Amino acid sequence: MYYNNALCDIYIGKGAGKKLMDDMRGAKHSVKIISPYLSPYLISELINLKDKNIDVKLITTNNIEDFYGDRERNIYKLIIQKCNTDFDKQIIRNKWIKLAETLSYISYGLIALSIVLAYYFRDLKIFLGFIPIIILFLIRGLYKIKIKNLRIYSYHYTQLFPFKVYMCNEKTSLIHSKIYLIDGQIAYMGSLNFTASGTQYNHETRIRTTDINAIEKINKEIDDLFENPYMLAADLQLWGRQLYIEPIN
User: Fold this and answer.
1) Closest Cα to residue 202, out of 12, 63, 65, 8?
2) Is the dihedral of CA 228, 230, 232, 234 positive or negative?
């Protein structure tokens, strides 16, 4: 996009994110962000906004600080696991469990009976009765394997709010823009990433505008980038499977 003669404020120096964060925390309706880098604690700011029923939209890259980190970091709170239950298979599994338990009771009962009879009659031939007992244990073992391998649960993953994580490497272009749009009325652009260093410590440039025409174009640019069909985005389902445990039953 190109827009000329926009009215704006310019800030250069440290703490460039202070006013941005103040405006963002005071949002009434929506917050849209493009930032190739994110800090976990600032992701929590977006979660807080969502909890206040603010519409949040995020575009970032796999340069998120904890993209490859452990599951307790904040980025993973944006990915929600949904479990689907196959109730027909669950009924079958419960029947198999009862059958396996019944076979166990019968087997142990026959073992006890064989020992008593062998002791009472002093005849070791009675222990030939262990052959059907062994067969019962084998059958029970087969059912236990079937119970273990029967898939009852399947999973899919959803987002806490709409976000895209575009993958960047030596073959793909890096999204390097930093854009923040608040309530469709205030826009920030410049060098500051949505990180602790960018918003607080680094020497950054920041432009703030409420120019109506500029806001309209910026909003469209964000939405177009979010729906870009030519850029490779992280697969939410694959990412979720890497994050969460998925017991099958």
Assistant:
1) 12
2) positive
Q: Is residue 2 part of a domain?
A: no
Q: What is 171-215 written as a DSSP string?
A: TS------EEEETTTEEEEES--BSHIIIIIS-EEEEEE--HHHH
Which range is least confidently modeled, 67-71, 204-208, 217-221? 67-71
Say whether pLDDT at 72 is over 50.
Answer: no
Which are the contacts of 248, defined by CB distance < 8 A and separation ≥ 6? 149, 150, 151, 152, 153
Q: For residue 59, give both structure tokens.
A: 């575009």
Strand, coil or helix: what is 30? strand
Strand-pair category, 9-13 with 30-34: unpaired
- Predicted TM-score (pTM) of the model is 0.77
Same structural domain, 138 and 65: no
pLDDT in tens, 220-244: 999 999 998 888 888 999 888 888 8
And the tokens for 238?
Answer: 């694959």
Residues 13 and 72 placed together within one structural domain of the fold: yes
DSSP string, 3-19: --S---EEEEES-TTHH
Burial 238-247 (b: 16+ CB within 10 A, else e): ebbeeebeee
Residue 3 within any structural domain of the chain = no
68 lies in the same domain as 91 = no
Cβ-based burial of 203 (10 A; exposed 0-12, middle 13-18, buried ≥19): exposed
Range of the domain at 63: 9-82+156-243
Q: Integer distance in angstroms from the first to the last C-alpha of the chain? A: 52
Judge if 23 and 74 occupy the same domain. yes
203 token code pair? 């020497």
